[in-house]
Amino acid sequence: MNxxxxxxxxIGHHWLIEIYGIQTSHLEKKADVQKxxxxxxxxxxxxxxxxxxxxxxxxxxxxxIVIEESHFTIxxxxxxxYAAIDFFTCGxxxxxxxxxxxxxxxxxxxxxxxxxxxxxxLAKAKSYFIEK
Amino acid sequence: MNxxxxxxxxIGHHWLIEIYGIQTSHLEKKADVQKxxxxxxxxxxxxxxxxxxxxxxxxxxxxxIVIEESHFTIxxxxxxxYAAIDFFTCGxxxxxxxxxxxxxxxxxxxxxxxxxxxxxxLAKAKSYFIEK
Lengths: 132, 132
Known about the structure:
The structure is a homodimer of 132-residue chains. With 132 residues, chain A is an alpha+beta fold. Chain A has 4 helices and 6 strands. Chain A has helices spanning 24-27, 30-43, 96-106, 122-128; strands at residues 10-20, 48-55, 61-67, 70-77, 82-89, 111-121. In chain A, strands 2-3-4-5-1-6 form a 6-stranded antiparallel beta sheet. Chain A starts with 9 loop residues before the first strand and ends with a helix. The model of chain A has no long low-confidence stretch (mean pLDDT 92). Chains A and B meet through strand 1, strand 2, strand 3, strand 4 and strand 5 of A and strand 1, strand 2, strand 3, strand 4 and strand 5 of B.
């Protein structure tokens, strides 16, 4: 699932991940969700820079981990047994498939959907490039 | 550009935004990038919960603003005059088009590409729903 091209055509890589069929109790508490997303960062061998998690009332947790290679985010809807997760990376050294597998396991999820998108067309960016 | 359906079929809404042709000087300093993304949150009438910005050496800034309605993120590549921005929201009260227009203006950008994705199929989430 990681981009395999040796000649990059995009600046970033973005995985949009939908996880369904999660027991409510896994998604309710900030500490549990924070632990899960930190585990995903470790599984991907990404390098954490900072993190920020927020408990919503009455439901759900939002969390962001800024990594050297961009970001991991999570939003949980315990009332639907659903979590929306994003991995945004630059470079090809991050193993996002391992992070997806880790989250599926830790959440004991019924279904995981992953969509991959290239972010930033490198040739286009260079064509517009404006020095300061 | 905001979802107009009164009967929601998705749990979240996600805008992936590529901004090209930005003068390097707009993208280099944490303070400038932080001010721009906070302006976008205000333009969208979103409610900020917390924020976290990081200056990379030698190039670029990563920033995240957690909002009541999910998150806004930005990553800048001053060496390419490019910024990757995400708006993830739930609910339909956030005006993401205004936030896009604001960023295009503040960055004096040459080109903006926006892709919209629904996040989380509500019917599927409900079909799997597992009480604790």
